[in-house]
Design goal:
The complex is a heterodimer of chains A (337) and B (310). Chain A has eleven helices and 14 strands. By secondary structure, chain A is α/β, with parallel strands linked by helices. Chain A has a domain of 70 residues. Chain B has a single domain, classed as Orthogonal Bundle (MetI-like fold). Classes of the chains: A alpha/beta (337), B mainly alpha (310). Chains A and B meet through helix 2, helix 4 and helix 7 of A and helix 9 and helix 10 of B. The complex binds adenosine-5'-triphosphate and magnesium ion (MG).
Chain lengths: 337, 310
């Protein structure tokens, strides 16, 4: 395989002593789309914010984030600032609050063009119009003079995308870009991201709770749990035949069209980062937990070619859903589809 | 925007009318100006004549209607003591007051805002904590206490500066410091929290994620947004240019509007008191109006008639 564009090695992040990311290794290759999935609080956002050094100073970050052989975590800040928006663009969940409410779109978009493309004056206006066209905002010339509150959530997210690609990055990190939007708009934004990736040949990291979206959009998937990657591999085989019980659990929690089949939420909750269980962090919630799971925390190991899993019992048969929870239903553990 | 301004202007006028009415009621209800001005030993006939001359013998509502009507005609009445137009006497004192409050305002802005911004940008550092402790002190100490402390140190102990009176720049230093330090503390605290609030917003992270250097993020995205709430407090400080020096003028025997107000209240010189209160209300209300306009300029979300909760 070609050399990766970005390689995260042994990334750890802690907030006031509470670990949020506990040793993530992840590579993104040129042009590929990588999905990051996992429950809330599993460290998906923090991983990529840390990679771009966008976390507040109280976050203790260690490890390496290599781009062209340079470690972003060790570079002087001005060089990292040149990477942000220039080599790696990022968009966030809620476009309404991610745009500055008191500045016109022209200014917010123009800043990037001045910063990374060295444009000025009329060239900025022309390129800004082109970008708004590219992301599908009608009447681009007029929209440049709008403020964020004058546009819909979907349009604001398109503006965010235009800003993120304005510096012609090689990688776009989209952190739940559709969570705050209406369902119909979600599909449009995802289509836009996929189309832009094809046209511009950039890599995409798509952080999402939505396994369906990731399965559709991404080539490879990393499943995160409690600050670690627990399974990684090409999207289709990973979702068809997961190797880690947590991935299996996420899939079983997906609503299905078959109303007769009951939805099985993963029992229990994500562990408190200050009180991690011994051994595998997922063991307390795992239907397959065995004594071996309580020993050392299992490392991410190759199972099949291109597939990685961090399960202490790599030979489990996960083709079928796990045994049902006890007959007396625990309300937290079961929900009706 | 115009409609919005018209509503605001109307409200301003109502505010002033209420202040005028309130002043009228309180002053007429508390003590007899005739006795206070003429003295208790004056014969009853003289008191009656005084009351008749100033219309104090009329029923209170007649007095009120006359008084209000006169104000609407631009007539603020005559001083009962000096028999001169009140407005003229008050106007003579305004320059002396502004000579203290304007430099004090400059001091507040020049010290308070940069300290607040700097503290927010270095939150949690020793500098930040020092500024906050100083701000709490500066804010909590009443101005007459601060004035006395300054006098004790710089006039009595060190003998560097006069403790009262006027004439030279040296006379202005202690009153201006007394006025300015408290306001600077309040402004530093307010600016700091406005900045911190803005720095925590997602659009700041977006600006960083675009690759802007931190200085450009602060200049282009944090300061303009933090200015919006800060304008309110600055407007209030500007609004108190006339009224804010009552205590300090008294402590330093400074012949401004504030001391005139204290003297006039004590002697029930009705026209003077009412004239000063009207002036104070008018400056407050005007600066509030200006703040409202500035809000519209600074925050595009307010520009379209619809106004978010203040
Ligand atoms: N600024 C912060 N200060 C303190 N703790 C933080 C901060 N940001 C994140 N965390 C903690 O780090 C952990 C991982 O958070 P992260 O935002 O990466 O989760 P996530 O996987 O993106 O979840 P979500 O799907 O809800 O976005 C959480 O426990 C969170 O509470
Ligand atoms: Mg997140």
């Amino acid at each position: 395989m070609a050399a990766p564009l970005v390689r995260i090695e042994g990334l750890t992040v802690a907030f006031d002593g509470a670990p949020a990311v506990r040793g993530v290794d992840l590579a993104v290759h040129p042009g590929e789309a990588v999905g990051i999935v996992g429950e809330s609080g599993s460290g998906k956002s923090v991983t990529w914010l840390a990679a771009l050094r966008l976390l507040p100073a109280k976050a203790a970050v260690a490890g390496r984030v290599l781009l062209d052989g340079r470690d972003l975590l060790a570079l002087p800040l001005p060089e990292v600032e040149a990477v942000r928006g220039g080599r790696i663009g990022m968009i966030f969940q809620d476009p309404a609050s991610a745009l500055n409410p008191v500045l016109r779109i022209r200014r917010q978009l123009g800043e990037v063009l001045a910063r990374h493309r060295g444009l000025s004056g009329a060239a900025i206006a022309a390129e800004a119009r082109r970008l708004l066209d590219l992301v599908g905002i009608p009447d681009a010339a007029r929209r440049l003079d709008s403020y964020p509150h004058e546009m819909s959530g979907g349009q604001n997210q398109r503006v965010m995308i235009a800003m993120a690609i304005a510096g012609q990055p090689d990688l776009l990190v989209a952190d739940e870009p559709t969570t705050a939007l209406d369902v119909t708009i979600q599909a449009q934004i995802l289509d836009l991201l996929a189309a832009l990736r094809r046209e511009l040949g950039m890599a995409l990291v798509l952080i999402s709770h939505d396994l369906g979206v990731v399965a559709e959009t991404c080539d490879r998937v990393a499943v995160m749990y409690a600050g670690r990657v627990v399974e990684m591999g090409p999207a289709e085989p990973l979702f068809d035949a997961p190797r880690h019980p947590y991935t299996r659990g996420l899939l079983d929690a997906l609503p299905t069209l078959d109303a007769a089949e009951r939805l099985v939420a993963i029992p229990g909750v994500v562990p408190d980062p200050r009180a991690m269980p011994p051994g595998c962090a997922f063991a307390p919630r795992c239907a397959h937990a065995a004594p071996v799971c309580l020993g050392a925390e299992p490392a991410l190991r190759a199972t099949l070619p291109g597939r990685w899993s961090a399960c202490a019992r790599p030979d489990l048969d996960l083709a079928a859903p796990p045994p049902r929870p006890p007959a007396t239903p625990a309300p937290a553990a079961e929900a009706v589809a | 925007m115009l409609r919005y301004l018209a509503v605001r202007a109307f409200r301003a006028a109502v505010t002033i009318a209420l202040v005028v009415t309130f002043a009228f009621v309180v002053l007429r209800m508390s003590g007899d100006p005739a006795i206070l001005i003429m003295g208790p030993e004056v014969p009853p006939e003289a008191l009656a004549a005084f009351r008749r001359a100033w219309g104090l013998d009329q029923p209170i509502w007649v007095q009120y209607v006359r008084y209000f009507g006169a104000i609407l005609n631009g007539d603020l009445g005559m001083s009962m003591r000096d028999n001169r137009p009140a407005i003229e006497m008050v106007a003579e004192r305004i320059p002396a007051t502004l000579a203290l409050t304007v430099p004090a305002l400059v001091l507040k802005l020049a010290v308070g805002i940069p300290l607040g911004v700097w503290a927010a940008l270095h939150q949690g550092t020793g500098f930040d904590r020092a500024v906050m402790v100083a701000a709490v002190f500066g804010f909590a100490i009443p101005s007459f206490v601060l004035a006395l402390v300054l006098v004790l140190v710089f006039s009595v102990d060190l003998g560097w500066l006069p403790s009262g009176g006027q004439g030279t720049v040296a006379h202005m230093i202690l009153p201006v410091l007394t006025l300015g330090l408290g306001g600077a503390a309040a402004l530093a605290r307010f600016t700091r929290s406005a900045m911190l609030e803005v720095l925590g917003r997602p659009y700041i992270r977006t600006a960083s994620a675009k690759g802007l250097p931190w200085a450009a993020v602060v200049r282009g995205h944090a300061l303009p947004n933090a200015a919006i709430p800060t304008v309110t407090l600055v407007g209030f400080l500007v609004g108190s240019l006339i009224a804010g020096a009552v205590v300090v003028e008294s402590v330093f025997s400074w012949p401004g509007v504030g001391r005139m107000l204290v003297v006039a209240v004590a002697s029930r010189d009705l026209a003077i008191v009412q004239c000063i209160l009207l002036l104070v209300a008018a400056t407050m209300v005007t600066s509030n109006l200006v703040v409202d306009v500035l809000y519209g300029v600074l925050d595009p979300r307010l520009r379209h008639g619809a106004r978010a909760a203040a």
